[in-house]
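Entry:
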Amino acid sequence: MHDQDNDKIIRDKDGNDYLLAQEKGYNTYTKVDDSRCEAAQKWWKENKEFWKKVRTRWEAEFAKNKDLQLRAEVDGKPLYMHLLQLKKDASQEEINKIIDSFIVSK
């Protein structure tokens, strides 16, 4: 069960919030047999170390800065596209470089 009651806001450059929309919803989910999830389980097993490195970088950044400003795009692409172009055995340094390019310095 997933009960939603959310406000969607727009924050202007001065930090003022304006209500854009309200989301109300109720979703139910039914567990399926694990065999139907084999492709996802296999993908995660093959890629979890990569995403652990991504989380490591974000954890370090949030330990320093609780509030971050990110660029929407770098070189015309959003962050996820840059990350998905890396090989699953990419180094921590490669991942850090991409993430860091999206962080706006204060």
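The chain has a mean pLDDT of 94.
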